Amino acid sequence: MTDPQRVLIFDTTLRDGEQSPGATMTHDEKLEIAQLLDEMGVDIIEAGFPIASEGDFEAVSDIAKRSKNSVICGLSRANYKDIDRCWEAVKLAARPRIHTFIGTSPLHRGITNLGQDEMIERIADTVTHARNLCEDVQWSAMDAIRTERDYLCRVVETAIKAGATTINIPDTVGYTLPEESADIIRMLLEKVPGADEVIFATHCHNDLGMATANALAAVSAGARQIECTINGLGERAGNTALEEVVMAIKVRRDLMPFETRIDTTKIMNLSRRVAQVSGFPVQFNKAIVGKNAFLHESGIHQDGVLKNVETFEIMRPADIGITETNIAMGKHSGRAALRSKLADLGFEMADNQLNDVFVRFKALADRKKEIYDEDLIALMADSAANTDTDYLQVKWLRVVCGSDGQEAELKMVVDGVEKSAKCSGDGPVDACFKAVKQIYPTEAKLKLYQVHAVTEGTDAQATVSVRMEEAGRIVTGSASDTDTILASVKAYVGALNRLRVRSQKTAPDADLKSVSYKL
Amino acid sequence: MTDPQRVLIFDTTLRDGEQSPGATMTHDEKLEIAQLLDEMGVDIIEAGFPIASEGDFEAVSDIAKRSKNSVICGLSRANYKDIDRCWEAVKLAARPRIHTFIGTSPLHRGITNLGQDEMIERIADTVTHARNLCEDVQWSAMDAIRTERDYLCRVVETAIKAGATTINIPDTVGYTLPEESADIIRMLLEKVPGADEVIFATHCHNDLGMATANALAAVSAGARQIECTINGLGERAGNTALEEVVMAIKVRRDLMPFETRIDTTKIMNLSRRVAQVSGFPVQFNKAIVGKNAFLHESGIHQDGVLKNVETFEIMRPADIGITETNIAMGKHSGRAALRSKLADLGFEMADNQLNDVFVRFKALADRKKEIYDEDLIALMADSAANTDTDYLQVKWLRVVCGSDGQEAELKMVVDGVEKSAKCSGDGPVDACFKAVKQIYPTEAKLKLYQVHAVTEGTDAQATVSVRMEEAGRIVTGSASDTDTILASVKAYVGALNRLRVRSQKTAPDADLKSVSYKL
Q1: Which of B451, B234, B16 is nearest to A281 (CA)?
Q2: SS3 content of chain A, % helix, strand, coil (to 5)
Q3: Nearest to residue A251, comparing CAs of B518, B177, B216?
Q4: Is the N or C terminus of chain B more exposed, i.e. has fewer CB atoms within 10 Å?
Q5: Would the CB atoms of A290 and B429 count as touching at under 8 Å?
Q6: What span, in angstroms and rounded, lies between the C-alpha atoms of A360 and A252?
Q7: What residues pair up with B139 in beta bridges, in sequence order?
Q8: pLDDT per residue over B118-151, tens digit each?
Q9: Which of A177, A251, A300 minimises the CB distance to B255?
């Protein structure tokens, strides 16, 4: 990196974000998000924690193979087995990175039962091992903010001497303030021998609502890598939001003379896509990517906006890729028009994928006169759901509900065999889900159920997201339809299909007790 | 204020929050939220913008009459008519405050066509007028952050000389950084004569995700009033979130030796209530009050939590009033038990209110075996909906939906007369809403439709929120039922009832083009 003002963006949506309870993504979704991140200009993609599960390993390895410009990074604890497995997964990337960590604060040393000196040895040993495998090694001091300052200098010096090229200083519990975040980076740069030869990274959590400010304060003090996720996805209150740090640097170049390589016009599409696949909706007033973030409706403000756009707008919607909603397509639109429109929206696809989407597009256009961009995005969101190759497929549904009770009749195909059921329940959704269970008995529990209308108006498509848990595995299913109840059943069945795939791939309790880890 | 480390909490959920497009609250909801804020220990409640509408005036005035410990504040522009109207509304409070403002940045001076000296005169004049009416006067320099520093000193000096007791420095466009926010307060305290005799306030917006850090930086530099809203509600990306600044001060007393008067154990209830009445859901990973904010699920973290709760927890759920979800009530629970449980959850009510809630509680208990705290909170949320005194009432509904089409039959009472309709539509919700429209024709447009399950499991109640717009008026309706479709119709009809009340009280375009204002 030649330009001293270049700030590297390290995205960990697929590792720290995906680790968030309920945000589990499928293999294909991970590949897609990685490709979008690469195209947006993310410098480093943390693709997963290879030793955590077979699925994680395969995802990191496939993302590595397909990577274009981004460095592909995998996480590993401070032992040879983790590091070797990580290297196996990332080595096919054009630019691989091994990321290894250990908890350095008194509380974490207590958990690992390592004394200060023993931990120093462990760090020297593991970082050297990683560096022997890979030229690009990142080392993190978990809970750095609560580590004694002197000891933090010692561990950082050790990691640098052992060959780490990036040193990450995580605020693991989301506890720091901007001044403190800056002070620690400044101290390390001043005191640690060799600090000027590595890149310092900041990794913040938002438990007190200050992740963005803390990350930027670290950069002002000399850090040159920000670790973040799309929509601030992550455990608890989440990680630093990529869109916030990137746009803040862009808007306040006067005070922060830094640069990132991010194409900000791709932010909105990525935000929507991550919200969809994670099942974590973005709140209306979320900074940058919330539905209301660019709405100006109070009277004085509206006047101001009309008279001079700068009065209240510090950013333009177009800066993050928001275009005017317009009637995108109708029932007479053809395959080429659909492909071109989808490409505009950020979806590139092969012919066989397009065929499937086109069939579903036509079915929607028969029922809904005006197809908006949002409708197409919703259509893409469940393009993988309920296809002829799925183990469970919904074939036909009839539901009666209202004041006098609720009843559902359902026909499904299970592993190629058609089955049917008729159930009553507490509400139409309960009746339907009971019918599914009668056809395909399962212990899976519904943890979350939510519905959003895709566009305005009563004939809008509804997107239903369900989150289910079985034996500690957590999956999200989503589906869209103008019929909310039908969408609910498809989302539910989609989630059951996913649970089935996961149970073949991973051990029980994979999500709850896996060797996952949050810096 | 005797203690120099006391930070005043100024809550503007009912003014700046409520002004957010779609977050309109009813009169009763405003009174309830004000009471909860007062009980939580908020120092100043900004209750509304009295001249904006008759409804705003009445809300501020009724809140003033009922206030206990909080100062009640109303907003007014820089003219006598606004200020007089504001005083009329707040004067019955035990501790009234007039808040007046003008835009001082070059862009805003351009809008009002006032030169620098003319604006100084206007400020002296209007603040003096306000101070002649009320001892407690707050003055705000709208867009202060983008005002020339020298001129900002001049206007602040003018307001202080004219008698303002609180000076507010808003970051109207959500543009500042912590260092800049602190620098401006520090400069004003150093340079402006009389600055040591007033309280400086900070009012931040979250457009770049830094409202919390900016507010706290201002406090570190000498500001002693934070303006904020519950859940960070507000236009665009919203305001500083009350729960974040209050908890940050509590958690990091080592670096921020300040105090607030807030009873933090009331935060969660207020957050839930504001989310319900505003129709603005809180995202899972929202700091402090998000559903996931206290979830620890990754493996290493779980071990840590078990071994030592401090390892990853910097706050306890109980600090903000989160208690374990447990089976609260069943069908055999009596009236006294219900009243006591509701009081625990923060709902105090008169006998006639309790009767209504008890009837609905029994109806729910017939259908749902286990009634959780969340079920009761949802029940309270629509306790005002669909009562016998409403203009529009839902009497009976039957819906058929699924693969072969959707049809709804509906019976309603309109102004005491029973009517019925039968309609088909694109989806069951569309069919139902069409039936409502056939019975009660309306031009109102559905702007938002969303459904959340109240608890886990397929037999959970669903809470449906709809946001509707007619002639520029925006209302939110919500209802809960185990039958999603029935809840949808009740929410829709509830919104129509609200629109009717609003259209009798306010002019068209009240929400879109009123003289509302966002600092």
Answers
A1: B451
A2: 45, 20, 35
A3: B177
A4: N
A5: no
A6: 44
A7: B100, B167
A8: 999 999 999 999 999 999 999 999 999 999 999 9
A9: A177
